[in-house]
Predict the 3D structure of the following.
Amino acid sequence: MKTKYYKIGLIFLIFIVTSCSREEYLDIKPKGILIPQTIEDFRLLLDNASSGGESFGVTLKHSLNIFQAGDIEITDELADDFGFAQSEINTYLFQEQIFPSPNDDASWEGYYNLILTTNIILDGLLEITDKADANEAAKLIAEAKLHRAYAYFNLVNLYGLHYNESTATTDLGVPIREGSGLEDIDLTRANVQQVYDLILNDVTSSIDQLDDVQDLNLTHRPSKAGAYGFLAKIYIYQGKYDLALTALTNAINLKNDLRNIFDDDFDFQSGARLLPRPVLDPEIVWHKQDFHFLFPSQELLNLYEFGDLRSDWYVPASSTPLGLTVDTPLMIAKFINSNFSKGINTPDLYLMRAECHARLNNITEANNDINTLRESRFLAPLYTPINITDQNELIQYVKDERRRELPGNGERTFDIKRYNLHDNDNISVTHTLRGNTAMLNPNSKNWALPIASKYILLNPEIEQNPRD
């Protein structure tokens, strides 16, 4: 039974290489698994798995996470008009079972297939003996570790409770997949601390081998700037704000571009201000792809102030080219130019650093970072710099600014989990749809998504998340 799940991973791997004309680039070893041979082979495989492979799910950052608590609102009329998947509705209503057997969970499979791919690359690169390739091999090893860490980070935060230093060694994390073998695999869930230890080791052991930044057409590859930003996010999730601040300063010193969004394209059919295509977006530090539509809640829309150009990201759904008839607000900004970039971007770097400064009572520095970002989000004559001197008020302002700047990327769910744990914010989420009302209470066990029954049936050692 243990090998069945990773046969799924092998199928995805075969799809990866065959979709890139495998016969042209790789010399297949007929041992039941496809093994690349040269540095060029490994580069091809890693780039494919981390950029253009959306069809097999390995680049997903969050998927259903946005429906859990992501500033989204689904009305009965919208549900009838748009046609959400049942798994999306189940997540929205916090159901005990999201994926009935034998249905797949695209996030679970996508991340574990990415882990399998990176493990194959890491195992294979150990056999590279040509010294001329040593530097490039070291860079590929570093990049593969970053992608693996990213996958585990999202898995443990989707399917586990938020990192709590006092309980991390007993809280259920996710299975740690070691090596690239497909037999005799133990998929018992590691604890949250063990998963975070693996993530941190992968990141910190790799930064020095990475390029400082990547060209815009190569941002699917990790860079030092992206790795420092990712490292800071990990530390923030652990509540280690001093360590995060150091990492963020390193990241921003390498990459600090901000667009003035007044200059972004405007779609006159819908009336929406658009995001640029990813290869033209200077704010992208480390590109990770995700795809979903954001139907914002009124609570989110109310956070935007007069003159904030980000409010132009939202237009009535009926004005968009999606064939919808409802006038529900819809964030169309990223769809026309297909800018589904998640991962790490410079606005997130500034907001994370502002949060760290605020939590460490560096009031002036926190205000400066917020104003640096917001100045590029308003028409210059309409912007008045903020100067918040109360620490708690400043922290809350950063939290609200994260919602204004980073809507629909799933971060809101993770943020609520950490705010409830570290700050005792006592945030609950209530959703109502078709006569059903469901509430997700603060610090509920149900913040950890249930694991699809398919994988537990295939691998009985995977323990299901307890529910309230």
